[in-house]
Every structure is written in structure tokens, then in C-alpha cells.
Amino acid sequence: MIEIDGSEKSGSGTIVRDAVPFSILLGEKIRLFNIRMKREKPGLRPQHLRAMEAAARICDGRLEGGSVGSREILFRPGAILKGGEFTWDIGTAGSTAMLVLCLLPLALFADTPSFYRVTGGLFQDFAPSLFHVKHVLLPVLEKMGVDASVKIIQPGYVPRGGGQVEVAIAPLRKPLSALNLATAGRLIELRGIALSSMLKARKVSERMARTSEAVLREKGYKPTIEVVDDSREKPAFERPSVQAGAALAIWAKTDTGCLLGADMAGARGRTAEFLGERTARMLVEDLNSGATVDRHVADQIIPFAALAEGRSTFVVPRLTDHIEARLWLVERILKAKTEVTGNVVTVEGIGYGG
Asked: Which of 48, 132, 296, 322 is catalytic?
């Protein structure tokens, strides 16, 4: 049995969301204790619990001790990984992206293609935005052989959630390929999307885009940011948001195939101008660092590099506790070998083949 102390390293939900899928792939039961002990509200939150329940469902596994606030769980993996159609509702504005990213490594080794429909939050702090997943993370994973797509059906913001996303994932035909992003290269494209719901009269989307573009142009870039206004009268997606909200995402592509992005969600007290300026400056910081992945992909890519065949190399903007935690986990559970030299991260994958 694998035993993991959830208070190690970052002490965050990342440990839970990685450790359980790894145990399923290895076919070993896992005990997690001291879950999220370094967070303001320790224990499982609704989004973590739904992710564990979803993982159990697609592998016919069993989750023991799973409830909101639980600080210890025992997970017993089943013997199969099922594809097919699944629907999950987080029940809060908890991150749909985090649930999807927990299941993605499993869906790659499922017996048939997977189609997930998830309801909850799409844009919030301390979680990947669906724009970033769609336009940055999944294209990076595509270089490794991942065939996955996301479609936003309905925007969802804090505090009500109610957003919905559909995800399609094809099983791998061969082991994941290693990722070699050693050189940042020259910027060739900078795009983005400024979304607001029920805020058209205040021109929130236009103001976010205008401010972000101004900051980027001042730094010598030529961005193109799409303005999207979502309303009940004229929804921008299949269904309108259940509440007012805003989100901004921008991403850059280089001639060496690197993709780096930045994003931010609206919140009480944040002006459109603040969102536009802050998001642009985050991307500029990562670009100026010489990194080949942004601050978010820097840790998100580690589980896939550990499962891949061969050595992955990428340059991160800076080392974070999430990077440290994920490197520790892939060494501890998957027995992958990792190395950090300056800001260069190397992961020797195990060539997992199911």
C-alpha cells in the first residue's frame, strides 16, 4: 500500500489529485493522511471529493473516508479503466478544470474514448481557467501525443458556479512522448480572450482587452485579444452564465513551439483595468524569464512527463512549491527520476503503457 502524508511539500490539494490517479495506474491502494493541512480550510473540499469519486467511478474503485473536510482517505483502485460518457456536478463554484486534469491521465489509458460533462466553476482564483486549459495546456500536451479537446457550454464564476464544460479524450495508441522545450525562441503570436457575463453595459470585456493590449504594446508586443460579451439576451455560448462575472486569458507562441499563457478571474473589488494590467504583466514576466512553459504549465506538465517515454526537459519561470510537490510525488510513487538545475527541470519518464 502507498502511504502519502498530505502535509508534505505544498500541503495542497495537488497532492490528492495526483496521488490517487497514480495509485490507480499502478493498481495499488493508497492511504492519504493530513490532507491539505497547510491550507486555511484543511481536508477535502467539494472539488477534491468529486474528483476522487469520479476517479473511483471510472476504475470501479472504492473510496473510504471520503467526505467534505476529511483529512484522511483510503482509496482502493479497481481493475479496469473505463471510457464512455460521464457527468459530474461539483455542486459549488469549485474548479471543473481541476477535476478534469485529475482524470486526464486515467482517460489516456482507458479502454475506449472518454467524454466528460462537468458542472461547477470555470473561472476562479487558485485554479486553472478553462481558457488556459484549452489554449495552452492541451496544445502542449498534444506535443506528447495527447488527443483531447474542451468545449465551454456555459461560463461559471464564483460564488454560484453553474458553468459547464465538455471534454473529449482519446486513449493513447502508444506511450506518451517526452517533451523537449529547452529553448524559448522568438515570439511569433500573442492572442487572448476577454470574457464578461451580464456586464456589457459597463464594457468590462472591452476595458480588460484595451488595458491588456496597451501594456503588451508598451513592451513591444502586438497582441490580438477577442472581446466576448455573454448575456441572457444574447449568450456567447450555448447557455448564458447564471451570474455576472469576468475572465481574461492571454497566450503567446514562439518559433520553437513554446506556448506560455496568463489568466485571471474577476472578483469583487477588481476593476477591468486591474485584470487587464495584471494578466499582461504576469505573461510578460514569464516571457522575460526565458522560460519555455508558463508558471502554471510548469507544474501541470510534470505528471505527464513522468509517465512519458524518455527524458523531458523544460525551463520554468521560477521554482514553486507546486513544482516541488509534483516532482516529489512522481519520484515517490511512480519512481521517475527528476533533476532541477537552476530553472531547468528534467524528468526521466517511466514509459507507462497501461
From this structure: 322
